[in-house]
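Problem: given the chain below (239 residues), write out its structure.
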Amino acid sequence: MKINVLTLFPDMFKPLETSLLGRALEDKKWDLNLVNFRDFTTDVHHHVDDTPYGGGAGMVLQIMPIKKALDSLENKGKVIITAPQGKTFDQAMAKRFSTEENLTFICGHYEGFDQRVYDLADEVVSIGDYVLTGGELPTMSMIDATVRLIPGILGNFASTEEESFADGLLEYPQYTRPAEFEGKKVPEVLMSGHHANIARWRLKEALKATLLHRPDLLENRAMTDEEKELLTEIKSELD
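Solution.
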């Protein structure tokens, strides 16, 4: 996968060159192309923004340098803009993005884009109901969530299938050595070696965590018979 990012601040993306994603970048399992759209301005001062028509505070990003930067890309693939009015990014979207050969993110700044910039995008995406100074941090979050799903990026790909949101539930609790610490013990079932009991315990704990912390995830879930049974047990225990 090749990911293009149109940004005024390419240095902000240094964190993607570290850890597992950085190693995968070095191994050419994915490619990151950072494009500073200030380089596509034509005036002597390299302005990328201007005052809004109709008046008002702040500066608005102009369409011309962004369009030129986009046109310079050989393979832009799906074009994504980060903005508050977009669809909220989630794990399902990350999975969908991870199947693309090419992705291009356009990062805003200042008071936002000239409205005509949105016509250049295939999707407008938000990472939550709050305001940041620019689109770089949301873009990095989406790149991280997307790239780690590409087969071969993580050492144990199966782990991505068991973590939070992978199947629409929060993840079950995890434990490792020591078996007891300051009086707190690892659940006996996890040390029993009984795989069916362990799987049932993990599913029950995932359902419980989701019910307590993100009940909205259960509202439209197509429950299996086992999940319905476990959820009844959980509610009874909580009552």
